[in-house]
Structures are given as structure tokens and as C-alpha cells.
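Q: Please design a sequence for this.
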């Protein structure tokens, strides 16, 4: 849950120009030391009593001690000129986080679709080889995503994606493929209600890997919830 907007102080720790007209500024939080915000929220920087400029927080809400802004600078803009003049070490005052049009982490639709995935797959895999069933399902997803990307004008040239991004997306794709193959093989022989919870043990592994490699720090309540998910998954899957 994001905190209410408040007066904040931060310090510039890095400035990048990914493109000639785009500036990215990293701000290390000073007061409060951590900014609790949701994806989609912004901060506003005051220039006088009537002039403020708002900028969306680009960085992940999992990283609370520093935030990144990305701004399409305009030659004569007040905010743009101020951003251009910033140097590493400069203090910055702003108000935030603001905005209610945010990514809802608890959106129940994901759980509903995930549940339907297991139920439909259990029926679908009954009379076909499970690996071939995974193949058919993957073609459906490929077609749907391609249609969605073109319909919403989100398709972008493959050349605009960096090599690093490709490497990690390919690795993620391989891991997803392996996970689906095992999932369908298990569904072929087991009860959907006992196979699906084992899949959810990934929640625990994601939390551990995210803490180890991405620097994410779940709260004690978060770790308790993750432990309960693990215990619940084992309990359901073992049929005790
Ligand atoms: C909620 C919210 C979030 C925002 N988040 C971002 C963000 O993450 N990144 C971001 O870049 N901006 C964002 N903006 C826009 C931002 O607040 C400023 O309007 C923008 O940075 C320009 O401010 P400025 O003071 O430099 O220019 P201004 O003084 O506002 O404008 C100077 C001149 O440039 C023109 N102009 C302004 N913006 C553009 C533009 N993009 N392209 C061409 N001409 C323009 C104006 O019409 C004016 O003639 C956001 C705005 C809101 C309300």
C-alpha cells in the first residue's frame, strides 16, 4: 500500500541521457529514507507557488530507497531546463507519491485466469500426449499475443530491443517452456487441485531469488505470507 503524498527530500545520484531528448535522473531518498509507492504514481516538483511539474516514477516500487525519473525534455520548458542543470549530489525537494491510477498487485483476475488454465488444461490433456498439448497451448498464446500487440499498437521493431533484454527474455522463455512441460505432464496423471498448488511453490522460490539477485526485501509480514503459501501448497499437494 503506497503512502500518502508528503514533502520529500532526495539527492541526485546519477544522470543518463538514453536518447538526446530524454533524460533519466536517479534520486536517492533522504527524507523519508524509503518511498513507498505503487507502479504508475508520480512526484511533483514545485517551481513557485503556482508552477509545478509532475513526473512519473519509472523505477520499480520494490526499490524504495531510490527512484528514477525519465523525462522527454522540451527546449524551453521550466522543468526541462531545471532537469538539464541538475548535477550528481544536488538536493531535490518534491511532493509524492501521487496518483490513484496504479497497477493493482492484488487484481483477482489473474487468479481467476490461472485457475481456469489448470481446469481447462486438465480436461484438454486427457486424450493427448501432454508435451503435444503444451505445444498446442503455446501456439494459441503466440497467436493471441500477436493479435493483442497489433490491435493495441504495441508492436515494436525487433531491432529496438537490446541484446541484454533478448538474453533474459530467451532465458525466461526457456524456463517457462520447461515449467509448462512439467505442469502438463503432472496434470495428465494427477488431480488438478493437487498439481496446481505445487506450481504455486514458485512464489516461495521467486521471493528467495528476488531477495538474493534483485535486492528485493519483503517485510516480515510478507515472509510470513510466503511461508504460509509454502506450507499450504505442501499440505494440499500431499493430501493430508
Ligand atoms: C501525472 C503526470 C505525470 C507525468 N510524467 C511524465 C514523465 O514521466 N515524463 C515526462 O517526460 N513527462 C511527464 N509529464 C509531463 C511533465 O509534467 C511536463 O509537462 C513535461 O516534462 C514538460 O515540462 P516543462 O516544464 O519542461 O515544459 P513546459 O514548460 O510545460 O512546456 C514548454 C513548451 O513545450 C511544450 N511541450 C511540453 N511537453 C512537450 C512534449 N512532451 N513534447 C513536445 N512539446 C512539449 C509545451 O506545450 C510548451 O510549449 C507528466 C505529467 C503529468 C501530469
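A: Design:
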Amino acid at each position: 500500500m503506497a503512502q500518502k503524498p508528503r514533502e520529500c527530500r532526495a539527492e541526485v545520484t546519477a544522470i543518463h541521457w538514453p536518447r538526446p531528448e530524454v533524460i533519466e535522473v536517479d534520486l536517492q531518498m533522504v527524507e523519508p529514507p524509503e518511498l513507498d509507492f505503487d507502479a504508475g504514481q508520480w512526484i511533483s516538483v514545485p517551481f513557485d507557488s503556482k508552477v509545478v511539474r509532475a513526473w512519473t516514477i519509472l523505477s520499480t516500487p520494490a526499490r524504495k530507497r531510490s527512484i528514477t525519473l525519465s523525462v522527454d525534455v522540451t527546449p524551453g520548458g521550466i522543468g526541462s531546463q531545471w532537469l538539464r542543470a541538475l548535477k550528481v549530489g544536488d538536493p531535490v525537494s518534491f511532493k509524492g507519491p501521487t496518483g490513484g491510477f496504479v497497477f493493482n498487485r492484488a487484481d483477482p483476475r489473474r487468479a481467476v485466469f490461472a485457475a481456469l488454465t489448470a481446469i481447462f488444461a486438465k480436461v484438454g490433456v486427457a486424450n493427448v500426449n501432454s508435451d503435444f498439448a503444451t505445444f498446442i497451448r503455446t501456439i494459441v498464446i503466440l497467436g493471441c499475443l500477436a493479435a493483442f500487440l497489433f490491435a493495441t499498437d504495441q508492436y515494436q521493431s525487433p531491432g529496438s530491443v537490446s541484446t541484454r533484454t533478448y538474453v533474459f527474455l530467451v532465458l525466461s522463455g526457456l524456463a517457462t517452456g520447461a515449467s509448462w512441460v512439467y505442469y502438463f505432464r503432472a496434470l495428465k496423471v494427477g488431480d488438478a487441485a493437487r498439481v496446481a498448488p505445487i506450481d504455486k511453490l514458485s512464489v516461495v522460490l521467486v521471493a528467495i531469488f528476488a531477495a538474493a539477485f534483485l535486492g528485493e526485501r519483503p517485510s516480515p509480514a510478507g515472509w510470513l505470507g510466503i511461508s504460509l503459501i509454502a506450507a499450504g501448497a505442501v499440505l494440499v499437494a500431499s493430501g493430508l
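Q: Thanks. Anything notable?
A: Residues 33 and 215 are 16 Å apart (CA to CA). Strands lie at 6-19, 22-31, 42-46, 52-56, 66-72, 91-98.
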